[in-house]
Design brief:
With about 400 residues, this protein is an all-alpha fold. Helices cover about 80% and strands about 0% of the residues. The protein contains 16 helices and two strands. It comes from Devosia aurantiaca.
């Protein structure tokens, strides 16, 4: 289906800047939650599995909310949906600060915060970019948005640790919630939606999804994205605690997360640039294969500050570099009109992987006292995802009335 994007009322550079700041705040906040694993579990007496379950539910709620948020943004406009998401996200993080037990923490950190992340996500930012950016520049601009998310992780990891050290974990969350409210005014610059071309009616949610799911390459893309979520969530939530278990300081854990974010700025930009020049599905296969190699190499050597930072740098280059390529393929398959919703479906698979990675990490640790089994599973899944992406066909799906790519 062809689409018509109205000329934006806001200059394109301002749209990109505002979207990148939103992506940095939203993802940076989410990336800092692993720093709270030890202080929250020790202060509230939670087991690692209980905390991991709250974070797992957060990822699942994020994944469930995002397709619906994308659908509303496609139909009613990105700006107002992002503003609402910023409010929900801030309320969830604020609620985390005053949750006294497992059930309340699961509700605030898990459900409310997860829904807020899903509504105020960088997926909606990329949908807004897809609406106003010319097709030949989309992969690169998606890479810029992804790099901004990583910059947020680089900033919020030491910032969050600094807040925890200076004010304690509860007031640290209060300060972070206040920062999240900046999403509300910034979202006004991303207002607008993609219009259907004259003579083309909007497809209902389930009809558009049914058409998309009938395309085999989209199914493979969605399945493969599960592994990305598994890797990211497990490492993000459990890596700081794993390094402390190995004898390193909490500060090393926070800087490890920050290094991942720093190097992913380069990885995301490179991925977006390469995505406009090389087959996206083969780049994705290479990324998952290299992740498996990086994890395997990390396990071969004794854990030290050097190996932790080296692993973080390697994973950082591969961290969110899948996102501009995946979003680029979704837009290529189906056009920008349903990009928010259909990328949201792919991201739901990503968040199912996140749920499994976070929960399984806590469960295996409580059961065995170590994370080794989950690391090994990460290698196997990386190799499997690499194989899944190779057969993907980089062309438009004619069910949506698009011209072949």
């Amino acid at each position: 289906m062809s689409t018509v994007a109205a000329r934006p009322a806001v200059p394109l550079p301002l749209i990109i800047i505002a979207g990148c700041i939103i992506a940095a705040i939203g993802f940076g906040t989410r990336g800092s939650f692993g720093l709270f694993t030890l202080p929250i579990t020790e202060d509230l007496g939670l087991s690692r599995e209980q905390w991991g379950m709250a974070m797992a539910i957060q990822n699942l709620a994020w994944g469930i909310a995002q397709p619906f948020a994308g659908g509303f943004a496609d139909r009613y406009g990105t700006g107002r949906v992002l503003a609402f998401g910023g409010v929900v996200y801030a309320l969830g993080v604020l609620g985390m600060a005053f949750s006294p037990d497992t059930l309340t923490m699961t509700m605030t950190a898990g459900i409310v915060t997860g829904v807020g992340i899903g509504i105020a996500s960088f997926g909606l930012v990329m949908a807004a970019f897809g609406r106003v950016v010319p097709p030949e520049k989309r992969s690169f601009v998606f890479g810029i948005a992804t790099a901004a998310s990583s910059a947020g992780q680089f900033i919020f990891a030491p910032l969050g640790q600094g807040f925890i050290s200076a004010f304690g974990w509860q007031m640290a969350l209060v300060w972070i919630a206040a920062i999240l409210l900046l999403i509300i005014p910034l979202s006004a610059l991303l207002r607008g939606r993609t219009m259907s071309a004259p003579g083309h009616a909007d497809l209902p949610f389930m009809e558009a999804l049914s058409k998309a799911w009938g395309y085999g390459s989209y199914r493979l893309l969605v399945i493969g994205f599960f592994v990305c979520g598994f890797h990211l969530a497990f490492i993000n939530v459990h890596m700081p605690a794993y390094l402390v278990q190995c004898g390193l300081s909490p500060e090393v854990g926070s800087w490890t997360i920050a290094v991942i974010g720093l190097f992913n700025i380069a990885g995301s930009l490179l991925s977006g640039w390469l995505g406009s020049r090389l087959p996206k599905q083969l780049l994705l296969a290479a990324i998952y294969f290299l992740r498996a190699l990086a994890i395997g190499a990390f396990l071969l050597f004794p854990v030290s500050e050097l190996t932790a930072y080296t692993f973080a740098a390697a994973m950082g280059l591969l961290w969110l570099s899948t996102v501009p390529l995946t979003a680029g393929l979704v837009t290529l398959f189906f056009g920008p009109r349903y990009m928010g919703m259909l990328y949201g479906i792919a991201f739901f698979s990503h968040q199912l992987g996140s749920f499994v990675g976070v929960w399984l990490g806590g469960y295996v640790y409580d059961l065995t006292g170590a994370y080794d089994l989950v690391w090994y599973l990460g290698i196997i899944l990386g190799l499997a995802s690499a194989a899944i992406h190779i057969p993907i066909n980089e062309r438009s799906d004619d069910r949506f009335g698009l011209k072949p790519a």
